[in-house]
Amino acid sequence: MAIANFAPQTVADAGTYVPPVAEYAFLLKEAFGTDVVARATGGALSADDAGDALEAAGEFAAEVFAPLDRVGDQVGAQLVDGGVRTPDGFKEAYKAFAEAGWVSASVSEEAGGDGLPGSVTAALSEFWNASNAAFALCPGLSHGAISALQKNGSAELRSSYLPKLVSGEWTGTMNLTEPQAGSDLGAVRTMARDNGDGSWAVSGQKIFITWGDHDVADNIVHLVLARTEGAPEGHRGLSLFLVPKFKLDANGAPGERNSVVTVGLEHKLGIHASPTCVLQFEDATGYLVGELHQGLIGMFVMMNEARVGIGVQGLGVADRAYQRAFAYAHTRLQGSVLGLPEGTPIAGHPDVRRLLVSMSSRISAMRAFSVLVGDVHDRAESDGTGALAELFVPILKSWLTEQAVHVSSDAVQVHGGMGFIEETGAAQHFRDSRILPIYEGTTAIQSNDLVGRKVLRDKGETVSQVFALIREHLAALTATGNDVAKRLAERTERAVAAAERATQALLGFGASPRDAFAVSVPFQELLATLVGGWMHATIVNAVLAHTEVSADDERRLLEADFYSAHHLARVHALAETVAAGEIG
Amino acid sequence: MAIANFAPQTVADAGTYVPPVAEYAFLLKEAFGTDVVARATGGALSADDAGDALEAAGEFAAEVFAPLDRVGDQVGAQLVDGGVRTPDGFKEAYKAFAEAGWVSASVSEEAGGDGLPGSVTAALSEFWNASNAAFALCPGLSHGAISALQKNGSAELRSSYLPKLVSGEWTGTMNLTEPQAGSDLGAVRTMARDNGDGSWAVSGQKIFITWGDHDVADNIVHLVLARTEGAPEGHRGLSLFLVPKFKLDANGAPGERNSVVTVGLEHKLGIHASPTCVLQFEDATGYLVGELHQGLIGMFVMMNEARVGIGVQGLGVADRAYQRAFAYAHTRLQGSVLGLPEGTPIAGHPDVRRLLVSMSSRISAMRAFSVLVGDVHDRAESDGTGALAELFVPILKSWLTEQAVHVSSDAVQVHGGMGFIEETGAAQHFRDSRILPIYEGTTAIQSNDLVGRKVLRDKGETVSQVFALIREHLAALTATGNDVAKRLAERTERAVAAAERATQALLGFGASPRDAFAVSVPFQELLATLVGGWMHATIVNAVLAHTEVSADDERRLLEADFYSAHHLARVHALAETVAAGEIG
């Protein structure tokens, strides 16, 4: 293959967001050997049908959300007279978003939404997050609240709150963290006292509450983790309460202000448009969601979805940063480019090209995995892929968020000195990205979940299924006779073998769990990196089934070849690290 | 070795800077098997003598520079009435710095300074940069100007400008970049017209001029790259001019304002206290430095020093970020720590411990290399280590600056959600760090220099000397019988072999230079990672010569063992990547 991708191309303006609609069409319809939308919906919907929704969503993201990303960063959310004021344009954009049906699009039919399959909502989520990561958090949190209510709320709570959340007229939040209770929710001190009338009085302080207050919707439905009197200590004493910002009047409309006060707003490194609130609850009226002392279970319903959502946010931020770097590199002229004609932009320099292909090869793999995770969740109940779905969540969350930091850093580097200047826009993504491997469970928490609950607990059975699934692709790749495919198969086979050794090493740490947890992050990196190779193998098999190789197909082959030479090779180093266990 | 280093310790307040004076004493006196200060000065100065200077410098850094780091970030340099105003306290701090002799301390005796050896000035430079990276750039640039003047300036220029620069009463700048001329200096358009009276009229616009204007000193000596009438196109037509902010009066004192105007100040991601100026020269009076059309040679004198300086800046930023994370992790309580008693701070969690040791193991290796590079430069003329010195510069600059980004990112991660809150302070280092792999030549430019001029040009001869130097340590390590030393020797031997394969692959790309330059960054990462193993081997050999193992020695052994299991293993992946050449 010629070194073609440096060539001057039609390039979007650096601030423009171009939603990867065609790539999703390929992924939904072909990459996994079947139309995953049709399979998930029993034929009720096809990938082509979904394509129309993606086209419309992409347009909305590019035209409404993306232009607000800069003002969101520069002005940010502000606390004015005890309430959060969002930057100019946010309120109108949110209303348009809800009215266009984009909140309900990703809600299950049971809960009153459109019931699009997970593989499609993954695409929508990428578009919202790529175009405006800070804004996308707002409807993202509503989805968590909707799921928690749908699953555990009483009929009365569901009928009072669900329709407005699903329509987007109201938004939802998750209230977990307190100053002394971050990753360790067992330390939560917020108290709920039974009012004896079916309601509870909730008191305490919650911090880091994303979109905890704002002016874009008419009511906010807080889901609050609290302890009740006489409840057990630790995790087992926590219950979940619904606390509305405005209590509902006799007609079910927002009425009297509840005693939830925004006492502070954090000054953050990034996602400035997302208000991160300190909320004070003083005998605020709340309603129990689910059983007493089962709050953490209710919360985990939200958290699992939120973790997938934040993973996809990582993909979105990475792609936006990449698009900016790509546009800059294809317009900026600097120096003679080795072996190429005068006038070649910097995208042709060997190392700029390396950075760009490195970014896009990771993004394409992560995007394919995001679709797969959505699809596996869609099928979890019908075809027994539930264990796979659970294994994939911590990998998706860790991998896509950590790579968001790396890719957005690479995007700054492509810009040279201009990348460090705020006006260029590349720095914003780098700043925004840095929260992603932290919130909704840090990379360490994800990796401990992966190692402890998803690998050690079943003695490696589920992860071995993954290795078997990967190997299924390799013979087919080799049989194509294509050089890229053959190299990819050979490198992936060696990577699977390294992953098997690492898994055996983990299982061998039985007597010393610190050894396993001291290398949980390297083990997760290893699996994530291997999954990237798997996704490229999947893509290459689909590409080589085409009778004609399109420009997109050439890019896909290039990305696969690059990924296996530059990223997949890391698996061998990580396997050695995992085998070492805790040092010292 | 027990898992000891999580234990509650005397911990500095998170904002405090603790200069690593004792570590430098070890490095200067013992780590390299000899007192490198005594060797470099022919016995005129010993490591113990240097220790007094380091103690005093560390105190100054901690007490004067460090407390200004936060206000520097928050208020930043501002453009007021056409001049740059530094944040409160900067002016006084700079005067105290100059009066204490810290500018002249790092200047050669020939140029009128104290002539401290490079191994010692490396330590000073780390202290200034760790305590206040934005501030440290100011005297750092003076050193470049001093070197350029000392080497190429006329007797008259030297006598008029050098003493004031050396004393720190005036400061220096480097004026290279223009909007169309960043990495490619051949595109410089600033013109100098001969006034016929020994002076030149310089006109043009320069951007990204660090400390290009300020209020901390009485004059600013700009060294400006410009083209003269009738000069050849490209690099060979550039000359170097000295352009003072204030022209000198008959007594040599700053007099009439020269026509250099600060027309803009950049809004940057980090190092806010460092004014990054757009300077407009309009027939500004300048003086030729060195020969006509030899400007780039004069500039390279400054650039080589500046590259070493920025590398060490990376080390400083990394260490400050690490110190903050270490302090937080040893005071923050969250969750039960696996296998350890209640009340153990988060530093005891397996993954927090992993992050902390990962950071410190890289910092210790980079610090040792910084001393070695200073020492090799000291000896370059006397014992023929010049080729080594040249090989090391791009490795030092790339490695220490890239790791500054990674380590400061890890430091944010250790803080969890608090790391994303600006008040915590961790985010500043992450922001500050991001310029380091860009300015003074990006990582790609360093890596191309490494591959093209330092490896391919001599057919791998110098780099093979490095491999031989590394191997010299390994037999001794194995002979100690110590487990850490044996593992380190075994892993380093395999790493050297991988580096040799990668070098052979590079040399084999003779006919297709794009293949070599497409993997120049991975090759540089490989060598840098290997050098880290070498530094730990050096340190472990010195430690095991001790009759008693101190707490510092235990930490050093732990870091060496960790580095070889977690970082050195990457060499194998990188060797595979290098061998692949350009993809596609």
Automatic annotation (TrEMBL), chains A, B:
Residues 174-283 form the Acyl-CoA oxidase/dehydrogenase middle domain. The keyword RNA-binding does not apply. It comes from the Bacteria. Residues 470-581 form the Acetyl-CoA dehydrogenase-like C-terminal domain. InterPro entries: Acyl-CoA_dh-like_C_dom, Acyl-CoA_Oxase/DH_mid-dom, Acyl-CoA_Oxase/DH_mid-dom_sf, AcylCo_DH-like_C, AcylCo_DH/oxidase_C, AcylCoA_DH/ox_N, AcylCoA_DH/ox_N_sf, AcylCoA_DH/oxidase_NM_dom_sf. SUPFAM superfamilies: Acyl-CoA dehydrogenase C-terminal domain-like (SSF47203), Acyl-CoA dehydrogenase NM domain-like (SSF56645). Its cofactor is FAD. Keywords: FAD, Flavoprotein, Oxidoreductase. Residues 301-450 form the Acyl-CoA dehydrogenase/oxidase C-terminal domain. Residues 87-169 form the Acyl-CoA dehydrogenase/oxidase N-terminal domain. Signal peptide: none annotated. Gene3D superfamilies: Acyl-CoA dehydrogenase/oxidase, N-terminal domain, Butyryl-CoA Dehydrogenase, subunit A, domain 2, Butyryl-CoA Dehydrogenase, subunit A, domain 3. Transmembrane segments: none annotated. Belongs to the acyl-CoA dehydrogenase family. This is Acyl-CoA dehydrogenase.
